[in-house]
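In this supplementary section we document a worked example of the pipeline. Step one takes a protein sequence of length 937 as its only input; no multiple sequence alignment statistics are reported here. Step two produces a three-dimensional model, which step three serialises into C-alpha cells for compact storage. The input and output of this example are shown verbatim.
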Amino acid sequence: MHGEAPLITNTSLFSLLAEGHTARVTVVTPNRRLAAALARDFDGERAAAGCRTWEAPDILPLAAFIQRLYEDALYSELAAAMPQLLLPVQQQALWEKVIAATQSGRELLSLAPAASLAADAWELAHAWRLATRPGDAPANDEAKAFADWSRRYERETQRARYTDGPRLAPLLEPHLGHRALRKARTLVVYGFDIVTPQAQRFFAVLGEAGTAVVRCGPAGRASRNCRVAFPSARHELQAAARWARARLESAAACGRMPRIGIVVPDLGRSRKAVQRILANVMAPGRALERGTGRPVPFNLSLGEPLAEHPLVAAALAALDLSAGEVDFASASRLLRSPFLAGAEAEMAQRARLDAGLRKKAGPKTDLARLRRAIAQLTAADQPYRAAACPVLSRRLAELAASGAGLAGSRRASEWSKAVSGLLDRLGFPGERSLDSVEYQALKAWQEVVSSFASLDLVAGEMRFAEARARLARVAASQVFQPEAPDVPIQVLGVLESAGLVFDHLWVTGLTDEAWPMPARANPLLPIALQRAAGVPEAAPETSLALDRVLTAGWLAAAEEVVFSHPLHEGDRDLAQSTLIRDVPAIAFEQLDLPRYPELRTVLRQAVSEEQLEDMRGPAMAAAHAQPVHSAGGTSVFRDQAVCPFRAFAIHRLGAEGIESPPIGLDASERGTLVHGLLACVWQELKSHARLQALAERDVEGLLANAADTALERVRRSRPGAIANRFAELERKRLIALGRAWLELEKTRPPFEVARIEEKHSVCFGGLAVNARLDRMDRLHAADGSAVHAILDYKTGRVNIGDWLGPRPDEPQIPLYAVGSGETVAASVFARVKAGEMEFKGLAREAGLIPRVQPLQARGSTAAPGSDPWEDLLSHWREELHTLGREFVAGVARVEPKRGSETCKCCELKALCRINERSRVALEDFAAEDPAVEEGDQ
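The serialised model returned by step three reads:
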C-alpha cells in the first residue's frame, strides 16, 4: 500500500479538511493520541487563517474507523451477515474458558496471564496474516499449545456467531461496496510507520470499492539537535524538566503557547519518579495551595491501572472484606478511605481507631474479627473510647448482613448488581463532592461493573470469589488516563511519540541497553513464522530498522531536539546508543538553563520565619508541692534519659508511632510470654526449696499450665496472634525455655520469692510513677542478714553498661533498686534465651547470685573506705531525681543521647525534625558551593 497510494502534503490535507463534509474526507491514524494531535493542528490552522467557525474534521484511529463501519452494517440489511462483536472483557473470559479446557491449560499456574498473552498472539497472527501462510513452521511447546487454543477459540466463536477486533476488517471486506457503509470519498492514511498486511489488504479492497486511498504524514522540519550526557537518570530528568520550563517561559513571554515533548523510553516503570520531578520543577508551590491547586503545565501520556486509583482500590478492598480474609493493610486503608459514608465527619476518630487496631490486629483480618476488634477497642472503659465511629460501625454491620447472602453461584449480571448493592451499604463513594479526576474514576469503575455484567454471554455461573477476582482483573487491565485540558508539555513513551510534531523535543534514556530496543517476538507464535512475515519485533534486524525510523522521526519532529542519556546506574557504567552517536555532543552547561527553586525552598520562603530557641514545655503543676503523677510508668524515666524531647512528646503530648501488625508474634510479645510463664511458675513455687523438692513430672505439669496461662493472656490482648499449629509450637518452646531456666535457678543458693510482677509507686524529682517489678527475691548475705535481689527478665541483648554513667539508658532496675523500700544487695538481668541462659548484673558481695561478681571486682574506682555498692545506689538516686525534675519542669531538648544511633529506632523523627536540621545545614553549604549537584541534598 505504501508503494502504491499517492502521497499528499499536510497543506493539501488541511485544504481537503477545510472543505468540510462536502469533501467526504476521513483521516485514519495508528492511535488516538495522533488523531487528537492532528485535529488540534487543523484547529490551529483554521484559527490562524481567521476563521471563526469550521466543521470538525473526521479524524480517528484505524480501529475505530473499522468498528464504525461494522456498526453501520449492524444497523442495515447486512445485519444478518454480522456476527456479534465481543467486548475485550468477553474475549478475555472466552480465552480463559478455552484454555482451561485443555491439558496444557490445566498445567498453568494462572489462566489470566496466559489468556492475555493468547489474545495478543491472536491479534498479531491476524494483523500479519500468519494463519494464512502455507507450510508448517517449526514450533515449540508454547506455539503448539497456542495452536490448540486458537483452534478451539475459533470453533467456539464460529459456533456462537461471535467475532472480535482482530477479525473485523476481513469480515467487512466483502461488504465495503455496500451503500449502507459510510465510506469516505478520500481516505487519508496518516502517520503510519508500519502498515500490516491485514491493513494493506483492507485499504486495497476499500480502494476497489471506490474510495481514494492516499498517504500523508507529519511534515519534517530542519532541527537544531544535540546530545547531552548526565551522571544519572535522576539528573537527566531534572535537566529535562528545567529545560522544558525554560522553553515554556520563554515562549509565554512572547505570547505563544509552545508544544514541548519529553520522551521517556521506560515511562511505565519510572512514571511516578518522572511526575514527582516535573512537579517539583514546574510547580513547586502547588502543594501549598488549598484544594487541588492550579493545573500543572504537563501531562503524562501513560495512565495508571484503574485498579490502583484510590477510589477504585477502596471499592475492591470493600468487596474483599465482605467476602473473607484480607491483609490488615488493605482493611486499614479502607477504614481511612474518604470514599465511605461518614469519612469526613469521622476522619480524626477513624485515624485514631486505625492506630489502636494496629496494636491488636494480626497481619490478616476479616469483617467479623474487624468489627469485634472495633467494638472491644472503643468500649466505654477502654483507652480508645474517644475513637468510636458510629457511622462506620453501622455501615460495617450492614455490609456484614449483606455479605451473608454471597453464598452460591450466580451469573455475572447478578453479581454486578450485588457488587453495587454491597458498595451502597458502605455509602460509596462517600459524602464529599468528588473532584474531576475522582469523578472520572467513578465513571470508569461503573463502566467496568457494567462490562462485567456482559460476561453472561460467554461465562457460566461463578462464585463470588471468582466474580470479584475477574472484576479486579478487568479494573487492573484498564489504563486510567483522566481527561485534562490541553497543556504545553507532553511526556510520552516511545510509541506514543511517533508521528507527533513539537516546537521543542527532548528524548531521554538513550543508552545502548535501552535503544535500540531488543527484539521481542511473541512467545506463542513460531518465531520463524513471525520473521518470515516481517513482524518488526521478531528479529534484531527488523527491530533495529524500526528504531532507526523512529530516531529519524524524532530528529525531524521539532525545531529543537535534545537527545540525552545517563552515564551511570548505581555502580554500573552506561554507554550512549549507537543510533545517536552522529548527533553533535555538547556539555549540559551549554544549554544555559536557569535554576529554579525546589519545593523545600518554596516552603521555607512561604512563611515569615521568626526563630525562637525554646527547649522547654510548660512545667507540670503540682498542688501543694505534691508529686506529679504520670501514667507512663518507668518508661518516662527511660525516655527522658535517652532524649528529653521523646519523653515530652510521648508522655505529655500523647504522641505515638504507627505500628504495623507483625506476622505471628513480635519480640515484645515473645518477651511477654516468657514473663507470664515465669510469673505463673514462681507464684506456685515461691521458693528455691520448693523447686528442689519438686519431681520432674510435676515440673513439666507446672510448666504446661503456666504456658497455657501465658498464651491465653496474649490471645486476649491480640486475638488471632496465636492459633492452631503455631500455638502448639509456641507452647512447646515456652515449656523448653522454662525447663532450661529452672535448671539454672536450681544452681542458686537458697532464696524465697518476695514479689512477683507487683505494682508499687516510686517518686523521684517530684515525679511519681507506677512501676511493675518482674521479681524480687529474698536471700541471705554472708553475714546472715536478709537482703533482696532485683531480677528483670530479658529475652534479648543485655548490657550492664545501660545502668551505669549519667542518664542511664535502662533506668528500670535502678528505679526498683532505690525505690523498693527494701535492702537491695543485687540487681540482675535474668536472661532467658535458648542456649544462653544466664544471670548478669551487679551485687554488693559475691555468692548472692551465680556468676554475678561484687562491684569491687568490676574495677570500681571508689575512694578508699567507701562502699561501692552504696555509692552506686546513691548515684542512681541522683540521676533519677535529675530525670524526674527535668520532666516535671518541661525540659524537652532534642538531644538524643547517642546521636543517630538513638534515633535509629525512634518513631518521632517527623515530630522533632532532627533530620531537617542536618538537611538545612547541607542546603546552606550547597548554596555556597556550586559543586554540589541539585538533588544531592
